[in-house]
Amino acid sequence: MPMSPLDHDRRYGELDQVVRAYAGQPADDTPEQAGRALTAYLRHTWHTRPWALATAERQLREYAEHPPGRLRLKLGEYYAIPDVGLADGEIQQWLRCLADHVRRSIEEGDAPPPAMPVTHWEWHARFPETGQFLAGWFSQDMPDEFADHDAAVEDYRASTDPQLVARLVGELRELLTLGLEESDYALAVAELGMEVDPPAPYGPSAWLSLVADRLSNPRAEYGPAPQESP
Predict the structure, then answer these.
(1) Separation of alpha carbons 170 and 177, rounded Å
(2) Could you tell me the maximum CA-CA distance found in the chain, to the nearest angstrom?
(3) Angle 221-227-230 (CA atoms, 0-180°, nearest 5)?
(4) What is the pLDDT averaged over residues 175-186?
(5) What is the rounded distance in angstroms from the CA atom of residue 187 to the CA atom of residue 129?
(6) Which residues have C-beta within 8 Å of that of residue 122, sequence separation ≥ 6?
(7) Considering only CA atoms, which of 86, 87, 104, 127 is closest in space to residue 34?
(8) pLDDT band at 38, cuts 50/70/90?
(9) Average pLDDT of span 189-193
(10) C-beta separation of 192 from 124 below 8 A
(11) What's the rounded Cα separation, in Å, for the pair 135 and 18?
């Protein structure tokens, strides 16, 4: 029978995070240099969950040294490596290479410096609530679901826990402090799931700033007018 979620995470949880970082990226790591995807994983993990790196190194090496045998394959009790563009016979050596890079990074304290995300995985790992917001409320179906962008923003506010709304505001502020070119902000919102243009006359960065300002202010609630004293 397939593994339980708990067993999966104990054996392969961080290995899965590393491999997911390769979505849309080549497995082009060499013994001398980590590739783009692994560098993105190292950069984000060093600055958010540095303790997870040792787990990643161990799980990568254990899977490379002890790939699932016939019985585990038959029972479905194993982690299936997604297609990363390598032949089956190359996977184990590639995993060892990744484990070596992670170990070297830990032992030498070599953390990639903060930078603009460079992969789809890194954008979503660094700005998860922004991804939920843009992909959930500003997909290509947005014009059919809402009267305009403001209505979509207000629907997000009304249907989302205030703590998550506050998290989104923080992420938007962080995104804006990257100081990117406008074309890079257009790339950012596309990577994070936005499939419609910002409302005229705003560019992506100006609109994100407007959204952050609006969501950081309490929504106005209108009650009955106060009665005058006789």
Answers:
(1) 11
(2) 89
(3) 165
(4) 96
(5) 17
(6) 21, 40, 41, 43, 44
(7) 104
(8) very high
(9) 97
(10) yes
(11) 23
φ and ψ of 79, to 5 deg:
-100, 125
* Helix 204-216 and helix 182-191, axial crossing angle in degrees, nearest 10: 60
Distance CA 121, CA 41 (A): 8
**Rounded CA separation 206/177 (Å):** 12
pTM for the whole structure? 0.86
Select from 94, 70, 88 the least CA-distant residue to 15: 94
Structure tokens given for 131: 């991804």
What does the alpha-carbon distance between residue 65 and residue 92 come to, in Å, rounded to a whole number? 7
- Closest residue by Cα to residue 103 from 150, 56, 137: 56
CA–CA dist 139, 152 (Å, integer): 11
Helix/strand/coil for 79:
coil
DSSP 140: T
| Cα–Cα distance, 152 to 171 (Å, whole number) | 18
pLDDT digits (tens, 9 = 90+) for 127-177: 999 999 999 999 999 999 999 999 999 999 999 999 999 999 999 999 999
> Residue 41: how many CB atoms within 10 A of its CB?
29
Question: For residues 137 and 153, is the Cβ–Cβ distance under 8 A?
Answer: yes
Angstrom distance (rounded) from CA 38 to CA 45: 10
Count CA atoms closer than 13 A to 35's CA, side-chain side: 20
